[in-house]
Task: inverse folding
């Protein structure tokens, strides 16, 4: 028996597959490939698979991963080829590796965020957001299991750098805490912009990578 | 499809955006410049419901088999998405290309349920297609519709160009072939429709004129332009040779029926007198064991589903059910596929059957005795006896089930209060059967749920002349039902009769109701099958605005010699047979099922299926 980590991208239409639905989609893909996977041994056996870290609905993911358990030796190339044949086109598997870290070690995620201001130019929006990030406190309402909670996002966003790309888009690359128990979602800045600046931002978010506590790339 | 920036912005604001993006496994993408005909298959309800529908899967596969046709899927956007689409002027689109449905050659609807009719008009408008058939020009799509409700499509006669009667597998392609030919020859829309009307199973409502008597009943229906006087439905006689998809589109979202489905037969041998499907899908035509098994296996291989359901109107009536289950077991276990059986009859549940499907999770069991007393069950020709129900319950409880759902109807013809309270009495007997069963699950309590639906008389049934109960009568009976419960192990569910009333109006409606449909559309009606949207009060305002008395359609007893709005549609069943059946119902006399004895209903005119099989009694 051998644990392997399967790496994939999740883009375009696949952004709208929720975490639960992704689990089912992957199980079905494996069922089709007939790869020699370990099944849980309970009363209703099913394929054992763990998706490293849920991705919010609507976000793209470039370096997503899941762990499976093989019961026979099989080449990485074969796993990649068979899985891609069984998955929808907007989910593409590109690598299979031996797991180095445990999913529970994940502590940070990096994002590429493309902002489209709906009621301001990119330059205006950039200036307003930069001003916002210098404030003492930036409160947003966070929806937790215990109900809505006021939450100060400043510590997490204060060092965020905004750029105007050549095509005129306002973008940012940023790292935020994430863990199996929750984290700081990049969309919270949009909520703050609406609340403090009356600035409506539409955003395209791509999760690019995961890291551990020491900022080492998740492998 | 590629998601546009405009769409992406809307998707960020709606629930379940996965409904609106396509991209699922096995969905079919073609190059639109390389196809001749584009067909938008529209299901007038949500994605989750539409994606569970077998007919759509069959026709989607069938049309896309042809290189020159591209069939796409379209569902009714839920109210949140519809609002945003209207505000942002985004037209309703096909899930494969993202193109608006007004760009298609055909826009096809499946009519499963009368209360989805408002969604048909709403979807046409959302897609930029003129809603009335007389408003559409040469560049507008041809609007077609099939499904069970086309057996009386008159309330939609002003809106749909072509109705398909009966099985769609052949007639759809014949009409598309004709369309391609007419296009090449530069024929007009009108000429195409006139020629299409010559194809068997095609009903072009604009070619028929309806005259009314002063009392509002129909005097005559006359065909024009050489269209046939009566239109006969299409039947597929050999299901082993008929097209069946090797793959299904596999949704990401959790849909209502998320599994592989094989159809084991069409039609039903029973002839329950309230059931439209039992008459309009005659004759019974079965698939062979080999075909069903192969189709199940192909589907599981192409979809990754690990559950396959054997579908039909009454699967335990499949003549080789045990043989089929044995055949499926030769591979399903190794492939880790479970087999499930919906639609089990009370008298079709055996230990042999449960042993073979015991891999299935023991969720609740559902049976439909339909009526509470033997007399009323005989009236409706259900042919199920209480001792059979008790025997079945004993088997089920002994095999470990402890949750049972029983379906009934109230408002059936000849019903008395004793029949109504008979429902709870029967429920109580099932509770008692549990405690009398020695091998019942230990330490568990039993839960019996009794659901009582309000009866809606439907065309092509022996009850097509019957009045529906009044709202007050339904309420009184529901109250009587509720107050007759004596144990907490028994739960009674019923639903307001409001929706059943509107359903009854449209089920047996005529063309005068098109005005009500149009008025309802103008007032923004949609999703009338959903409690979130349905309002009887608003419907009554619509009827009043267009001067229509809904009781004329729902609550009126028709005489046997009245011309009915669907009399020019021929489903094989003869009116004189339905009249006989209606009279027998009043005598509480039953009719044997098709396998026991032929009752000469008229379906033998199709010269196939059970009508030409040798019956055991004859051999």
Result:
């Amino acid at each position: 028996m051998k644990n392997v980590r399967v790496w994939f991208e999740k883009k375009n239409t696949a952004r709208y597959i929720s975490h639960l639905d992704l689990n089912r989609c992957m199980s079905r893909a494996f069922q089709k490939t007939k790869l020699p996977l370990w099944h849980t041994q309970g009363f209703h056996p099913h394929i054992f698979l763990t998706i490293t870290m849920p991705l919010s609905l609507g976000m793209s993911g470039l370096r997503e991963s899941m762990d499976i358990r093989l019961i026979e030796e099989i080449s990485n190339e074969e796993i990649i080829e068979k899985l891609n044949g069984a998955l929808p086109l907007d989910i593409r598997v590109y690598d299979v590796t031996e797991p180095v870290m445990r999913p529970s070690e994940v502590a940070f995620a990096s994002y590429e965020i493309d902002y489209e201001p709906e009621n301001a130019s990119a330059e205006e929006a950039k200036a307003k957001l930069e001003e916002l990030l210098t404030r003492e406190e930036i409160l947003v309402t966070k929806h937790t299991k215990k109900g809505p909670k006021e939450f100060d996002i400043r510590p997490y966003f204060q060092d965020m750098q905004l750029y105007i790309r050549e095509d005129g888009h306002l973008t940012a690359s940023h790292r935020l805490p994430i863990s199996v128990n929750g984290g700081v979602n990049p969309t919270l800045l949009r909520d703050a912009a609406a609340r403090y600046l009356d600035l409506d931002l539409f955003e395209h978010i791509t999760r690019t990578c995961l890291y551990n506590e020491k900022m080492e790339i998740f492998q | 499809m590629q998601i546009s920036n405009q769409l992406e912005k809307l998707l960020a604001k709606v629930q379940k955006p996965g409904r609106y993006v396509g991209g699922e496994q096995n969905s079919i993408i073609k190059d639109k410049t390389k196809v001749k005909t584009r067909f938008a298959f529209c299901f007038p309800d949500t994605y989750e419901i539409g994606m569970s529908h077998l007919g759509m899967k069959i026709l989607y596969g069938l049309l896309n088999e042809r290189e020159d046709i591209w069939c796409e899927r379209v569902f009714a956007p839920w109210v949140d998405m519809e609002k945003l689409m209207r505000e942002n002027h985004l037209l309703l689109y096909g899930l494969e290309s993202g193109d608006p449905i007004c760009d298609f050659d055909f826009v096809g609807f499946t009519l499963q349920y009368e209360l989805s009719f408002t969604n048909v008009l709403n979807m046409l408008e959302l897609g930029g297609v003129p809603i009335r058939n007389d408003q559409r020009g040469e560049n507008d799509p041809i609007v077609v519709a099939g499904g069970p409700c086309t057996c009386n499509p008159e309330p939609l006669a002003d809106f749909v160009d072509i109705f398909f009667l009966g099985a769609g597998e052949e007639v759809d392609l014949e009409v598309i072939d004709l369309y391609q030919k007419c296009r090449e020859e530069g024929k007009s829309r009108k000429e195409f429709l006139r020629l299409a009307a010559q194809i068997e199973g095609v009903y072009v409502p604009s070619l028929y004129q309806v005259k009314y008597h002063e009392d509002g009943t129909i005097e005559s229906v006359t065909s024009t332009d050489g269209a046939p006087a009566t239109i006969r439905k299409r039947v597929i006689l050999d299901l082993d040779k008929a097209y069946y998809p090797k793959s299904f589109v596999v949704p990401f979202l959790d849909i209502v029926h998320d599994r592989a489905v094989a159809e084991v037969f069409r039609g039903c041998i029973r002839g329950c007198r309230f059931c439209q499907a039992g008459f309009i899908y005659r004759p019974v035509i079965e698939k062979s064991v080999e075909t069903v098994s192969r189709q199940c296996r192909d589907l599981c291989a192409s979809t990754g589903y690990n559950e396959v359901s054997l579908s039909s109107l009454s699967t335990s009536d499949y003549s080789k059910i045990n043989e089929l289950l044995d055949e499926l077991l030769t591979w399903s276990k190794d492939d880790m596929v479970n087999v499930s059986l919906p639609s089990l009859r009370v008298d079709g549940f055996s230990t042999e059957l449960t042993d073979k499907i015991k891999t299935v999770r023991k969720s609740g069991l559902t049976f439909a005795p339909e009526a509470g007393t033997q007399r009323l069950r005989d009236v409706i020709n259900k042919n199920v006896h209480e001792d059979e129900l008790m025997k079945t319950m004993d088997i089920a409880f002994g095999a470990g089930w402890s949750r049972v759902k029983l379906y009934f109807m109230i408002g059936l013809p000849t019903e008395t209060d004793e029949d109504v309270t008979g429902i709870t009495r029967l429920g109580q007997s099932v509770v008692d059967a549990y405690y009398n069963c020695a091998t019942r699950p230990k330490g568990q309590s039993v839960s019996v749920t009794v659901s009582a639906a309000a009866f809606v008389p439907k065309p092509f049934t022996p009850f097509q002349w019957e009045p529906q109960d009044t709202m007050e009568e339904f309420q009184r009976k529901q109250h009587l039902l509720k107050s007759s419960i004596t144990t907490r192990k028994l739960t009674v569910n019923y639903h307001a009769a409001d929706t059943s009333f509107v359903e009854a109006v449209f089920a047996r409606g005529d063309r005068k109701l098109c005005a009500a449909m149009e008025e309802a559309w103008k007032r923004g009606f949609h999703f009338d099958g959903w409690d979130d949207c349905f309002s009887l009060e608003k419907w009554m305002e619509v009827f009043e605005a267009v001067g229509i008395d809904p009781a004329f359609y729902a609550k009126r007893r028709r005489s046997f010699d009245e011309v009915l709005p669907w009399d020019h549609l021929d489903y094989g069943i003869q009116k004189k047979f339905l009249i006989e059946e209606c009279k027998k119902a009043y005598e509480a006399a039953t009719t044997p099922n098709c396998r026991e004895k032929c009752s000469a209903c008229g379906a033998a005119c199709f010269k196939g299926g059970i009508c030409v099989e040798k019956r055991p009694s004859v051999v």
